[in-house]
């Protein structure tokens, strides 16, 4: 960051001196956690060598009998649209295609998902204490269209899962989905001008899986960002003799209770360990603490924990202040986003008024409309970082002070403090987590950034000390969506081959991110994906999905109308290169991650590694986003659509 600024008389303010001291602390704490293997220190749960641990990735919620009783999808079937994913992103694609009139026939849409039902992350995650950390009125898609009123300001997991099914029911999507299925390859056929998909449909224990080949005119990727649970490569983990499971596949047979009943009576009299102190653990720990005889919380990096303020939805407030006019949900999404991007106007109503709206420095990773493009010079970048650190400092200090005010033991409180800028990890919100460490049965095992050393049949070992356990909970997160440089193929876990057999992932690794507006790539006609690189992101992922699916549907709708249906839609290489050059101008804004502790946002430190190769640096810059934030990106897309020519696309009839 920039050095402390001098005042008019040459003096440095006390606040600037304190900020310089804190930034040095940030640097020291980040260095403790850096590992040269980066993402290699973790492995996807479904790829672990141990059969026992691999089994933890299986779907514990699926009703195989009910799905097997349905009429099976026929091998060789052809669809207009195949959507990969049946979470909120996939549902938004399907709804927009139906509402636009693009999908009206019985074979127009097929949604494919590896889960046993609709919901995406809300299908898989059913751990006790689960809530969305974004206000439900902003997060839950299509509230206005379905007329549903969330029960509380922050919806719990079961309600979010029910809402996915509500959307599917409202738009009659239950017969347009293939569950328990993993797509292996998606290959463009130049002769038929169709996408060929090869996939495996699971049928459950004792049943033979089915290998299917399907065809589609359009393929839409909506695989989500929290889809592949991971575990750290802890030596001996598979030898632990007690019960073990990942939070993404909670085992209520071990803990007692259910997704709708948080009475975890199976933990009574048990020594429970949980590895991880991220956003999931913040919600889980208080529930474990209530029932476990002893709870050991193994921490590599603490989370910054801010206030939550959960409360029931007030019917009168809903009617008069929230759902007060047509278009209210998009307006509310934008209002929340304006506070996170430091873009709120003076005197503007704060509709959401929660902890998120008190951290404008989160704009470091999602952009801001206030400061323009940061020039890629050392001086301008240092000035930019200094401004961000100053913007964040008061809030970060308040978060640390809150820890001191709640946790009674000073030594424990010190270890629970987050020594990194707010934007470096997903902020967390709880009115229960810090309080749990005041209970006599809850023990923080801080690893000083090193992580757990090893495991054995009895428990875990940290710094030479063994912690005997009966039950081990892995709250170790997910593979970062930026893996593979953010390649849509790697993120989806599918091999994708376009014109001439060209691999989408090879294109990404060779050129870097290559899209127009973050949703399509040249050489891959009629293939679209939800935006990640070369677009814009919001803390509210449902907002990102809403904007992306709206844009993709518009492109397809206008292209189909132009040729009278059955269109070929492909972005030109010139258009995507022009867009890449635009994106690269914004890359310096995101230099803010360089001061971060290794974690999810930095791909476990890989994003922090500087390369001497100019081509590699250029590829990283191509993977950036617009630096003015989601509202500016949305405006850009709206202006593009209003112009009407679909500039940058080649559109032809498939016939």
Automatic annotation (TrEMBL):
Entry GO MF terms: flavin adenine dinucleotide binding; N,N-dimethylaniline monooxygenase activity; NADP binding
Organism: Corynascus novoguineensis
Pfam families in the cross-refs: FMO-like (PF00743)
Upper classification of the organism: Eukaryota, Fungi, Dikarya, Ascomycota, Pezizomycotina
InterPro entries reported in the protein's UniProt record: FAD-binding_Monooxygenases (IPR050775), FAD/NAD-bd_sf (IPR036188), Flavin_mOase-like (IPR020946)
UniProt xrefs under SUPFAM superfamilies: FAD/NAD(P)-binding domain (SSF51905)
Keywords recorded for this protein, A-Z: FAD, Flavoprotein, NADP, Oxidoreductase
Coiled coil segments of this chain: none
Name of the protein in its database record: Pyridine nucleotide-disulfide oxidoreductase
Domain of life of the native organism: Eukaryota
Record-stated family: Belongs to the FAD-binding monooxygenase family.
Cofactor(s) of this protein: FAD
